[in-house]
């Protein structure tokens, strides 16, 4: 078994059962062609730019979803963890703004960018699962994001095609390979395992796994919007220069 699959959740726990129940969707998300391009450094810059600006907007709403998890948390420890997660998400956006600044895109312009359908659908889906359900429904909707990016980073580090020197996406990779981020991802998987036991994960598995798989597919769509933007860019370029 690969090292990254061992990293999150415990054997037989709810997190791994959710992940394994949507193996094809999970693979399509965590080893998407966009991720290959981050890893070997060949991702076209317009694809990354499109992704990163939308991801900044995504994180604002993701912080709101985590705030809802503070509200729905059933222990002070969980409230503390979630509060820390909100702080981490807001800190993560400084990486986004640094990239944008290096491209000459000021923060005001990033903020004024309209959200894409991919961004709206994913963020509002997660918030809706949390509003309609309890803390377990919400944590399961959040997990592909928090834990998934932890796994994506580990997959990149293990990738034989990885460009380790002079990779333009290195600071993106570092953000999620960071021990602090990895610890947060592990804690999120462990909380799902614990909630699975305390909140009837077995009896609720059909609903929970549908939520988890939906979020994994929305994550894959989120990468794909970057590649779609680059395709448009290439077509326009070829038209202008053809
Ligand atoms: C779409 C997406 N999923 C997960 C993360 C990790 O925080 C992120 N920044 N963006």
UniProtKB/TrEMBL annotation:
Q: Name one GO cellular component term.
A: cytosol
The membrane-spanning stretches of this chain are none
Enzyme group, top EC level? hydrolase
Question: By its UniProt entry, which Pfam families does this protein fall under?
Answer: TENA_THI-4
Q: InterPro entries given for it?
A: Haem_Oase-like_multi-hlx, Thiaminase-2/PQQC, Thiaminase_II, Thiamine_Salvage_TenA
Pathway(s) it belongs to: Cofactor biosynthesis; thiamine diphosphate biosynthesis
GO BP term, example? thiamine biosynthetic process
Give start and end of each Thiaminase-2/PQQC domain: 25-228
Determine if Hydrolase is one of this entry's keywords: yes
Q: Name one GO molecular function term.
A: thiaminase activity
Q: Quickly give the catalysed reaction.
A: thiamine + H2O = 5-(2-hydroxyethyl)-4-methylthiazole + 4-amino-5-hydroxymethyl-2-methylpyrimidine + H(+); 4-amino-5-aminomethyl-2-methylpyrimidine + H2O = 4-amino-5-hydroxymethyl-2-methylpyrimidine + NH4(+)
Q: State which Enzyme Commission number(s) the record gives.
A: 3.5.99.2
Q: Which UniProt keywords apply?
A: Hydrolase, Thiamine biosynthesis
Q: Which NCBIfam families match?
A: salvage_TenA
**Which family does this protein fall into?**
Belongs to the TenA family.
- UniProt function note: Catalyzes an amino-pyrimidine hydrolysis reaction at the C5' of the pyrimidine moiety of thiamine compounds, a reaction that is part of a thiamine salvage pathway.
Q: What is this protein called?
A: Aminopyrimidine aminohydrolase
């Amino acid at each position: 078994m690969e090292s990254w699959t061992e990293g999150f959740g415990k054997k037989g726990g709810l997190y791994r059962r959710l992940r394994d129940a949507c193996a094809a969707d999970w693979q399509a998300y965590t080893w998407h062609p966009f991720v290959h391009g981050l890893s070997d450094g060949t991702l076209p810059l317009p694809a990354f730019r499109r992704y990163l600006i939308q991801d900044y907007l995504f994180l604002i709403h993701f912080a709101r979803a985590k705030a809802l998890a503070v509200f729905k948390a059933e222990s002070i420890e969980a409230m503390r963890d979630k509060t820390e997660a909100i702080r981490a998400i807001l800190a993560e956006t400084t990486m986004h703004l640094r990239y944008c600044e290096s491209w000459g895109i000021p923060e005001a312009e990033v903020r004024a960018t309209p959200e894409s359908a991919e961004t709206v659908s994913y963020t509002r889906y997660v918030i809706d699962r949390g509003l309609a359900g309890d803390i377990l429904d919400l944590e399961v909707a959040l997990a592909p994001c928090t834990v998934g990016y932890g796994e994506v980073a580990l997959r990149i580090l293990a990738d034989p095609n990885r460009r380790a020197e002079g990779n333009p996406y290195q600071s993106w990779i570092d953000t999620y390979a960071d021990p602090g981020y990895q610890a947060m991802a592990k804690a999120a998987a462990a909380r799902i395992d614990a909630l699975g036991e305390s909140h009837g994960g077995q009896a609720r598995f059909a609903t929970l796994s549908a939520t988890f798989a939906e979020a994994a597919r929305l994550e894959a769509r989120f990468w794909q919007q970057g590649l779609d933007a680059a395709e448009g860019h290439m077509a326009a370029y070829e038209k202008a220069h053809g």
